[in-house]
Design goal:
Elements: H1 17-20, H2 27-38, H3 47-133, H4 140-152, H5 163-243, H6 248-320, H7 326-337
Helix pairs in contact: 2-3, 3-5, 4-5, 5-6, 6-7
Length: 348
């Protein structure tokens, strides 16, 4: 910086302070003042010379004070600048964040809607999986109702990109539920059969107890009759002994009639016991025949249902090959089965 370029101390302002108060920026002022006070050599021997030296020194002090004062003022402004800059930056960042969020809002709204849409469809997929996997505690009625619920769900365009997956998990759910239904029906049938056998066993045990009571009663009656007969024989013997000489022929006839009566009584008791035993055996055979017939009819019904289910399933699978949906294929099969399609029928 040349002498012509040096700014006078009194000309230092807020505008040019940033160019002055920098590293080495004050050195030209120092050099200028030093040059001003060094160009003359005052005479110390005279009062005027000594006053001149004092004046020059005072000039240096005043120049220093002037430069320092303006520098201190500039420094105070510099210390305030971080607060101003921080406030400006904070407001700028807030406005820019708001502008960014407002600019992105359509995309954010779309992403939120897309997430909600996918969540809804994925919830539908999970519903099928739950139906397929959480059916162990359901009875046959509940399983049938669940199957109806699953079959009622229509898989179409509303499933969007999840349509194929939804169709697959629905099919798997129906397979799992139908298998569970078959197993449950068999289990319930087995339980019903066991209950029937248990009731039959209880009934037979009761009949056996009743028969035992009747048999014991018959045996006791026989014993009583024998005791009574023996008493009568003893009495007859005594009477015969007493009247032997007078009623020999009459006693013989009485004894013959008594023996015939005893034989008839014993024969009658045996016929009664045989009839009771035969009735018991007949009842057992009747129950066995009835149970066998029920089992035969149940097996026939189960085989018929399985056969019809297979025939209808094969027909549906064949129709699916034509490119229709599963629901459409099922509707076609149901209409044919109901006789709503002329000249077409399903043979079981």
């Amino acid at each position: 910086m040349t002498d012509k370029q040096i700014i006078k101390i009194e000309d230092i302002t807020d505008e040019n302070a940033p160019q002055i108060y920098v590293s080495g920026g004050l050195k030209p002022f120092y050099e200028k003042v030093r040059a001003d006070v060094s160009t003359e050599v005052p005479d110390l021997k005279t009062a005027k010379g000594r006053e001149r030296i004092a004046s020059q020194a005072s000039k240096v002090s005043k120049s220093k004070a002037a430069v320092e004062k303006r520098g201190r003022d500039y420094l105070r402004k510099l210390k305030e600048m971080p607060k101003v800059v921080e406030g400006e930056l904070r407001e700028f960042v807030t406005l820019m964040d708001a502008l960014r969020d407002a600019t992105r809002k359509p995309l954010t709204d779309w992403e939120d809607a897309e997430k909600a849409r996918k969540q809804k469809l994925e919830t539908g997929i999970e519903w099928f999986n739950l139906r397929a996997n959480e059916n162990a505690d359901l009875d046959s009625t509940e399983l049938a109702a669940t199957i109806a619920q699953v079959e009622a769900v229509v898989i179409g365009e509303k499933w969007q990109e999840y349509e194929d997956e939804a169709r697959n998990v629905k099919a798997k759910a129906l397979v799992s539920l139908n298998e569970a239904l078959v197993k449950r029906q068999k289990f319930e049938a087995d339980q019903a059969e066991l209950e029937t056998l248990r009731q039959a066993k209880l009934l037979q045990e009761q009949k056996d107890r009743d028969e035992q009571i009747r048999r014991e009663a018959a045996e006791q009656a026989t014993k009583d009759a024998e005791t009574k007969a023996q008493a009568e024989r003893d009495a007859a013997a005594k009477r015969e002994q007493d009247l032997k000489d007078q009623a020999a022929n009459a006693e013989a006839e009485r004894l013959r009639l008594a023996k015939e009566a005893e034989d008839e009584r014993v024969a009658s008791a045996k016929r009664q016991a045989d009839a009771v035993e035969q009735a018991r055996l007949d009842e057992i055979q009747r129950q066995a025949n009835e149970k066998a017939e029920q089992d035969r009819q149940a097996a026939a019904r189960e085989a018929d249902v399985a056969h019809k289910t297979k025939v209808l399933g094969d027909a549906k699978q064949a129709i699916l090959l034509a490119g229709v949906t599963e629901d459409q294929a099922r509707e076609i099969v149901n209409r044919i089965r109901a006789g709503l399609v002329p000249n077409v029928s399903i043979t079981f």
